[in-house]
């Protein structure tokens, strides 16, 4: 069951497909954790390109899953809804 728009952590973008800037503090916490995980990968895996790529792909997949779960359902938009 989709979240009501006022409870979604990640609103739809105004133009295009996907999510925009987080609307709630929980969304900002998710973005902060994502950036921290990428930073950890940069610091811990600089000499292992295969592991680094795997870490980035897993981090991005986790972010997309949380956005899909706690955001509005993505769809194409071509401006504000009226």
Note down, in words, how this protein is organized.
The protein is mostly helical and 82 residues long. It has a domain of 39 residues. Helix content is 51%, strand content 5%. It has a two-stranded antiparallel ribbon with strand order 1-2. The longest helix has 22 residues. 13% of the residues are buried. The model has no long low-confidence stretch (mean pLDDT 91).
Key phrases:
elongated, 5% strand, mainly alpha, two-stranded antiparallel ribbon, 82 residues
Give me the secondary-structure topology:
Elements: E1 15-16, H1 25-44, H2 49-70, E2 77-78
Antiparallel strand pairs: 1-2
Q: What does the largest sheet look like?
A: 2 strands, antiparallel
Helix content, binned percent = 40-55%
Total number of β-strand segments? 2
CA gyration radius, whole angstroms: 15 Å
Report strand %: under 5%
Task: Name the strands of the widest sheet in spatial order.
Answer: 1-2
Helix-strand pattern? EHHE
Mean pLDDT: 91
Total DSSP helices? 2
| Regions with little confidence, pLDDT below 50 for 5+ residues | none
How would you sum up the global shape? elongated
Structural class determined from secondary elements: mainly alpha
Between the first and last Cα atoms, what is the distance in angstroms?
Answer: 24 Å
